Amino acid sequence: MQALVIAAHGSHLNPDASDPTYAHADTVRETGAFDEVREAFWKEEPHFREVIRTLESDEVFVVPLFISEGYFTEQVIPRELRLEEWDPEKWDSDGTSASQVTLEAEDVGKTIHYCGPVGTHDAMTDVIVQRAESVTEDPDVGDGVGLAVVGHGTERNENSAKAIEYHTERIRETDRFDEAKALFMDEEPEVDDVTDYFESEDIVVVPLFIADGYHTQEDIPEDMGLTEDYRLGWDVPSDVDGHRIWYAGAVGTEGLMADVILERAADAGADIGDAVESVREAVSLETGADPEPSAEPGD
Amino acid sequence: MTAPPASVAALLEAVDDDGAVAVDGLRVGRAADGYALETPDEEWTGLAADDLADALEPLSDYVTNWRYWERSVGGEGTARRAFLRWCERAPLELEEAGDEETAAHPSVDDPLSVPERYDALRDGLDREWGQLCLTARLVDDADDDPAGERVYDLWHVDDADGDLADLEVYDDPRDAREIATYDEDGRYRPLKTAPTLPSGWAFTGLSGEELVETVEFFYPATVANWHRELRGTLDVDHWTETAERQTGIYDVLDELPREGVEWMAEACCVDSQCLRRREWEFDEDDALDVDGGDGPFPCREPCSLVVAAARKWTILESEQERTYELELTASEYNQLAELIDAVAEGRTDEIREADVNDGANRYRARYLRAKRFDEEGNLEARRIDDRD
User: Fold this and answer.
1) Of the four listed, A63, A135, B69, B307, which is most buried by Cβ atoms within 10 Å?
2) Where are the transmembrane segments (chain B) (predicted)?
């Protein structure tokens, strides 16, 4: 038997913080790829501390639903899961290349495949692009459009910015968008000045956050000038300084995130069959990329 | 009632494969002189295969009980199996634990025999798990289910005697997540074991696996830790271990004074606030004075809510005490105590609009504020003693 644990932050104050975790866990459940799928949290229940013992499987794949390698993925989660042999060196990562390490959880004697966070997986690049497609409702979005990937950024963790820059560079290399820039809340270049960094009239802004909350629903929209007061809401797109800003909200709520979770587990040796294909198919149906029948070419 | 031929055939096959089967008082084994069959009431030896099949036929309850536990549920030694057996008061099969220890556990009643259980399951056998009422029953009439299959219903204990028609009915365990997220007043419940689960819903016709999944969404990890406690293998992390393990902004936790930990346990970890029974102490050899409570679920370490609150109290406890002088009448002084007590007990919503005899009445509080607060909105007082 094999189990998947999606390890997320959660919140004591905001019930919506765990929504993406539940949604992606359910998508993976539907694929039937794992005998057991469990959500686990730092600030909700089941806590990281207790989750492994709720599983019957001997092989457990733990995928952190976090954006970057850093404090949570390198210290908190392994410690709370009781992975005694853990050492960040075992990931042998440059900050964005952690894949997995196999350890034993001391309280249960199970094999734990501890994976890198979803945010640094290559498949995450596709989710960012998918997010741009869904917010513009244009499956071909890119031509004449600039893409801003927004991260928190913090001086306490240099990996925080690395993840953002990594995906931005990968998107830039595809030449799909006219411009691709990494912007931040707490360091330069700042998202407040988003229009200064783009020549394109249309700018899609995708925050690389797991859940919508204070930053993505209050701070960033106000900082960018989409709205005077987040409680009044904002238009998508909104006009700011002669640009049209397509603000996407947290990328972590995108349906395709379940695909990244599966890829992480598969990279660590999980047998997931054709689960990735079925998730991609389900997600493309959900987002309604298929046009109305009356919109056939020539109509 | 005769045993269904398919179940008898499956049992015979299991005996031939494994040499013997034994569950809940039924034993069937193969020996040199033929098969041996035993129930708590009767015993046969030296049976030929056909005679064994004939002897099993009238033992319908035992045969279908074997099929349910060994084929439908399986999972020997798992918490899931133990929990489902607890649901119908079957013997818990806890080999590692001493019988006395297990029997003394508050969740354990005298086990019922197979015939007793079948009688009870036909009517529906009720158990309580926190604020959940669980009912195990037999599905004898369903064409799709094999005889002896159990199904489970689940609702709030407050709804146990009510009419199902008045409840919102669910059958997907995942719906429990949404129900458990908010209390009756629509407020977020960050602590799943807070005694504030809303009523008005029911899950019906769940399989055993679905029942455990649903219970785990309502009360995460309670089944696993209950099972560990029954087996005598519950691992408790006491306050000092938990506090010393913390890093980042929680690194300060081990500086919370011992008496602060007592006050915290009294504030958070009591029956009125949480259904868990605190098993952790200040340290392994250093029990807290505050009673751990009578909650049904063992609490094996300070939860994330307590950890977060403890950080705040650690910071507050690092402050110096000062002496303040302020003008209050005796009644106003008493009113402050009443206000604190009303908030601490969550009583403010119950105070009637016009009950001006209650010190925590809103108009009384607003009057006190109008009279005793200055223009900046602060309580007027003079600090008269700097101790540092």
Assistant:
1) A63
2) none
User: Would you call B117 an interface residue with chain A, using a CB distance cutoff of 8 Å?
Assistant: no
Min distance B204 CA to chain A CA atoms (Å) = 21
Query: Averaged over B267-280, what is the pLDDT?
Result: 97
Q: CB-based contacts of A197: which residues, under 8 Å, 6+ apart? A: A148, A181, A183, A189
Whole-structure pTM value: 0.94
Q: Give the list of residues 6+ apart from residue A64 with CB closer than 8 angstroms, or none.
A: A7, A8, A72, A73, A77, A115, A116, A117, A118
Nearest Cα residue to A108 out of A50, A64, A150, A164: A50
**Closest to B282 measured CA to CA, from B297, B298, B296, B269:** B269
Q: How far apart are the first and last CA of chain B?
A: 85
Interhelix angle B304-317/B258-268, nearest 10 degrees: 130
Query: Which of B75, B192, B224 has the CB atom closest to A53's CB atom?
Result: B224
Residues in chain A: 299
- Contact between chains at B190 and A11 (C-beta distance less than 8 A): yes
Strands A36-41 and A2-8: parallel
Per-residue pLDDT, B2 = 79
Measured over the CA atoms of residue B8, residue B12, residue B14 and residue B19, the dihedral's sign is positive
Instruction: Give CA–CA dist B103/B267, Å, rounded.
Output: 32
> Which pLDDT value is given to residue A281?
87
Minimum CA–CA partner of B235 in chain A:
A107
Residue type, A89: E
Using CA atoms, how far apart are residues B118 and B65, in angstroms rounded to an integer? 9
- DSSP conformation class of B58: T
